[in-house]
Design brief:
With 50 residues, this protein is an all-alpha fold. 96% of the residues lie in helices and 0% in strands. It has a domain of 31 residues.
């Protein structure tokens, strides 16, 4: 009986956790790319000044 209850909970909880986790990884990756782009822009601006 408990196994059946956990199965029903898992059907809803599993996809939710996967969706939230993938969204967090996606945001984390885009933030790192943006920070990398800003760093490259700063470096190229400094090279142009000198």
């Amino acid at each position: 009986m408990a196994l059946l209850a956990f199965g029903f909970i898992g059907v809803f909880l599993g996809p939710t956790l996967i969706a939230v986790g993938s969204r967090l990884v996606e945001e984390w990756g885009s933030t790192n790319r943006a920070a990398l782009g800003e760093t490259e822009a700063i470096n190229s601006a400094q090279q142009m000044k000198s």
